[in-house]
Amino acid sequence: MVNNENDAAAAAKPVTKTAAKKPAVKKAAAKPAAAKPVAAPDAAAPEYTFTKRYKMLTGVDDSSFCDKVVVHLNNGYELFGAPSITFNGKDVIVGQAVVLKKRPKAAKKK
User: Of 1, 3, 67, 96, whose CB has the highest number of CB atoms within 10 Å?
Assistant: First the structure.
């Protein structure tokens, strides 16, 4: 049963897509970008020697350890055996053995 004229008019008209709007979605406020850590200008990159035939690389399990392994791989070393991992109560400590690849001997000059 219809109580007034407005309700009767509304009931007679089908709902169109323009009439049924979705509620506005609020966008989350943009978070400020996290500042990247900047190395001190006087902090030099570690220097490695690449003459030893065998090395055991160790360190805290972080990106600097991974970088250390990659530097050695790029300079003629290859992985030797499985990596090792331990926990000292504070940090996760990892180790990886690397060996210097055998380089072909130079041909003898005549």
Answer: 96
CB atoms within 10 A of CB 77: 23
Q: What is the value of pTM for the model shown?
A: 0.53
Please give the backbone phi and psi of residue 45, each rounded to the nearest 5 degrees, phi first: -70, 145
Q: What single string gives the DSSP state of each residue in 33-85?
A: PPPPP---TT-PPPP-----SEEEEEEESSHHHHHHHHHHHHTTEEEEEEEEE
Helix (H) or strand (E) holding 98: strand 92-100
Gap between the Cα atoms of 71 and 29, Å rounded: 41
Rounded Cα distance, 57 and 85, in Å = 12
Give just the sign of the alpha carbon dihedral 39, 36, 73, 85: positive
pLDDT tens digits, one per residue of 56-68:
999 999 999 999 9
Partners of 80 in the beta sheet? 97
Domain boundaries, the chain: 51-102
